[in-house]
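Hey, quick one: can you model this chain's 3D structure?
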Amino acid sequence: MGVLTKIIDDKELCCDVIRHQRKIEFNDLADCNGEQTEKSKDSVKAIWDVILEENKVVASWNNVRVYWKHFGVTKNLVSFVDVNYAKLDKLDNEDDNWNFVVQFIKSNLVDVSLLKKIKFALVITDIGDIINKIPEDKVEVLLEKNVISFTLDNLQLLHDYLDDERIMAKFIVSNQDLFFAKISEDSEAVDYIVKDQNLILHLIYQDEISTENKNKLIASIDADTIDIEIAKKIIEMKLKINREQFYAIWNQVDQNLKVKLFYQYMELLTVDDFQDIFQQLKNQSSAFEKLAQREARKQVKLSNTPDNIKLAKCLKNKGYITSFNKIDTKIEMRIKKSQ
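Sure thing. Here's the predicted structure for all 339 residues.
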C-alpha cells in the first residue's frame, strides 16, 4: 500500500485505487495506512470506509475494533457487521471489547434486529454503568442472549429501569433456580422486588415456573401486596397461602369466589373464623346460616359432596362440631355449643 501512502492527501484518488483493486483483501485493517490516522485522519477514514463497503478486509471483531478506536461507531461500520455477522466469532470479554460493546449497543445506528444476529460470549456482571444508556428493547435482547448475569443487584437495577414487567419476568424465568434460591433468603433486594404487583402477576402466569416455585413466590409476599388479579390467580391455581393472605383475598373477592376460597383453604381457619365466615356466607346456604349459630347443639344437614365431606372432617378436627354422619345424599352434623 505504498501507493496510498504517497497519495494520502488525495482521499478521492485513494478510494478509487481501493475500488479498482478487485483481488485485494486485508487481513488486518490497521495494515492499510493505520499509522497515518493522526496525520491524515480524513483520508484514512475514507480509505477504510471504502474497504468496509467493498468487503475487502477479513471479517473479524479485531478489525471492527480497530476501525472503532479511531472513528467510533459509524454507518459503514454497522453495515459491515450486519453483512458479515455470520462470519464473526463470538464477542467475548477479552481485550477492550467491553468499551466497544457498550458504545456499539447504545448507538442509534445499531438496531435490535442486528443485535439479535450477533453471537455474544461476554457476560456483563454489573449493569450499573450502562443500564441508563441502553434502550429497553436492546436490554431485552441482551437478557435473551444471557449477556447480563443474574445477580440481585442487576435484578434490582432492571426492575427500576424496565417499564415492561414482561421482560423482567422472562429474565427471572430464565434464571428461576437462582431467583427462587434467593427468595427464601433475608434480602432487601428480593423484598423490594416482590412488592411489585404487576411483576408478581406476570410470574404467576408463567407456565415455565413450577407450582412449587410459585408457592415460594406467594410465601414471600406480604398480604397487602395481593390485589384482586393476584387473588383470582391464587384461587384458580390453588396456590398455598397463609391465614393473613387468606383474609387479604377474602376482603377483595365476590361471594362466589369467597365460597371457593373457603372450601380450598378451610384448614387455615380457627373456630372463631368459621363462625364469622358462616355468618358472612349465610345467603349462600341455609346450612351456613345454621352453622353460624353456636349457642346450642343444633343439627345441620349439608349435601353429601366431596367438598362438604372435607368441610365436615375439618370442622370435627377443629372442634366446631361434635360429630357427623353420611346418610344417603346428606351429611348430618351437630354443632358444638360455644362456651
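One thing worth noting: Residues 123-253 form one domain.
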